[in-house]
Design goal:
Elements lengths: L2 H10 L4 E7 L5 E8 L4 E7 L17 H14 L7 E5 L6 E5 L4 E2 H7 L4 H18 L8 E5 L2 E3 L6 H18 L5 H19 L10 E3 L8 E3 L5 E4 L6 E3 L2 H12 L4 H18 L8 H21 L11 H15 L4 H12 L10
Antiparallel strand pairs: 1-2, 2-3, 3-5, 4-5, 6-10, 7-8, 7-12, 9-12, 10-11
Helix pairs in contact: 4-8, 5-6, 5-9, 6-9, 7-9, 7-11, 9-10, 10-11
Amino acid sequence: MKEELAQEYLKQRGYEIKDIKHIPEGRNHDSFDVTLEDGTGLIARFEKQTEGKNLDPIYNGLRTLDREKNLCEIVRTKAGLPAPKIFGIYRSEEASFILAEKMRGVYWRDFIAQKDYDLQSYLQSLRFLGEDIGKAQQVKFESYGDIISAKEIYPEGLTDFTERLRFITRLQLDRAEKQNSAEKKELKEIGSYFEKELDCLEKQPKEKGIKPVLILTDLHPMNFLVDEKGKPSGYFDLEFCQSGDPVMEFYVLRFSLFNYFDKYTFQKAETAFFEGFEKQGDGYDKEKDSNAIKERILLSNHLLAAITAYNKIKDGVRDDWSEQFKTILFDLIKNKELDYPSIADVLRTKTKQPKTPKASS
């Protein structure tokens, strides 16, 4: 959607626009940075037109403006984290959009670049993030699934996380098959691997009294804002939020933030994050067999989703990403080792961040 058209829809709703700029991020929305005539800053997020239901590619969660509004409220009021207030939802056959508070700060990726990839600034930002994730995980639910509202989780009554993983796995295998993102022989091997891992998880001792927690799930370098010290100041893209197991958050952070530099920095990043997390969270034992199995299953699913997503993309940058992610997945299947730095090396061909941070002076 062009800025002129977005401005016209806003004017139809009574908003006088001083300035409007397109935000070139997001596959589900056309987003705009809006300044009203009185100087008020807003973010307008327009739903993109899709055929059928708009579902997220990882958990198959329904993406709606109402759910987005509910999730922002839960993160802000229940977890006490900086999420935007929603000022209105406007619907029409031509365009439906949400108006949200403009949060202060810069994208985490830009903060790291502004600090000239300084190691200590990077690690401190992850300590701050760890504290926030610890707060989020103090918010408990009664069942696993997509958070629709504070009182509604879909599907209803799912109290076995293994069953949630089975659903996610079937979803990714079906999508890969329908889109021909892997050969039949490869899909058979991947499916067999998942079945063995899920069966192994099923046999693990069940912990009593453990409740699902609030999971943000989609934290990557361009998906949250930080202040001048690297402390998160805005979580604004929350449509993937889950009532889930803590490992659902941690594997994504390893996938997108802890591996931002080389493998030597990866461990320092993880340590810094958990220093912050342990101030607020309930603790987490990544070496525990059940947690290790869950992480392998989740990462394998994410890799399979990436294989499918990039299968037909030919843009001169991501042409071979599908095959590279496939190589990483089959290495994981063979060795059961989580090679997060290799994932960053694939993404680095587009993001261009350096592989090594700069030592603090």
